[in-house]
Design a protein that fits this description.
Elements lengths: L15 H7 L4 H4 L1 H4 L7 E5 L5 H9 L4 E6 L2 H13 L5 E5 L12 E7 L8 H10 L1 E12 L5 E3 L3 H16 L10 H7 L4 E11 L2 H17 L1 H8 L5 H15 L5 E12 L3
Parallel strand pairs: 1-2, 1-4, 2-3, 4-5
Antiparallel strand pairs: 5-8, 6-8, 7-8
Helix pairs in contact: 1-9, 7-11, 9-10, 9-11
Length: about 270
């Protein structure tokens, strides 16, 4: 039987169209639910840090503390290091790690944070157990994940409906759970968390610039990224079906009245002192 970390494949990969989304993310637009709990001295672990934009923001908010960013993809960590260096942040370090078996002692960090990670892992409950284990008593486990079935848009588009159906099938075939947002509290309870604050927040894309950016990156991702390869290789869609979904994204983006909402579930779990 494969080890837990081998049961899920990161659906998106690190194509430029994916990183364009990842590097847009900030602590303000992706971790606002956590920011009020931060204190300048805190030691933070940022799991699935990717190119490091959220990591760097967190490091700037804990100037007397330290932030460790970890990711399973070693190649993306050079970009994360460069992000921190460009901002002159000396209180960061980066390492390869798997959230199912974190290479840190018990009770190490004040905050253990994961943004858009648990939807992609093979065993989210085990991941949360590990996050809780390395959190200090009185510290926080913080996780935020989107929920694909709760995403909604206007105007209606059969091609976009096809996209959502396809994404669900590809992500689940890769071992993930694309509707993670609604499950975070349940997973945290199963992991042994007892003091849980569950919230939600959204990203909204509606202006001409936002529509062009969001539709463009998904149009490209659908035909040119690891997601596209896995969709085709897994027998989930033909090349022509992927091109049709890509065209639907671009068509939606051209609608002046277009609107897209991304719902996220969020949890803050305080470890018993």
């Amino acid at each position: 039987m494969p080890h837990a970390q081998e049961t899920a494949v990161y659906t998106h990969g690190h194509h430029e169209s994916v990183l364009r989304s990842h590097t847009w993310r900030t602590a303000a637009n992706s971790a606002a639910y956590l920011l009020g709990s931060l204190k300048p001295h805190m030691k933070i672990l940022d799991i699935g840090c990717g190119p490091g934009t959220i990591t760097a923001d967190l490091a700037a908010l804990v100037p007397d503390g330290h932030v460790t960013g970890v990711d399973r993809a070693a190649e993306i960590l050079e970009q994360a290091r460069a992000t921190a260096a460009a901002r002159g942040l000396a209180n960061t370090d980066f390492a390869v790690a798997d959230v199912h078996a974190l290479p840190y002692p018990d009770d190490t960090f004040c905050v253990v944070h994961a943004h858009q990670v648990l939807q992609h892992v093979g065993d989210p409950v085990q991941a949360l157990r590990e996050m809780l284990r390395v959190t200090r008593p009185g510290g926080l486990v913080a996780a935020r994940d989107s929920d694909y079935a709760a995403m909604t848009w206007y105007p209606a588009s059969p091609g976009m409906d096809d996209w959502l159906d396809l994404y669900h099938r590809v992500a689940r075939a890769n071992g993930g759970e694309p509707d993670a947002g609604r499950r975070l509290k349940a997973w945290a309870l199963a992991a042994g968390c007892t003091d849980i604050t569950a919230t939600s927040a959204t990203w909204t894309f509606s202006t001409a610039e936002e529509r062009a950016w969001w539709s463009g990156l998904w149009a490209e991702r659908t035909v040119a990224s690891a997601y596209a390869e896995r969709a085709a290789q897994g027998g989930h869609a033909t090349a022509e079906q992927l091109r049709a979904v890509s065209r639907a994204w671009r068509e939606w983006g051209r609608h002046e009245d277009g609107w897209f909402g991304v719902l996220h579930g969020e949890i803050l779990c305080r470890k018993a002192a």
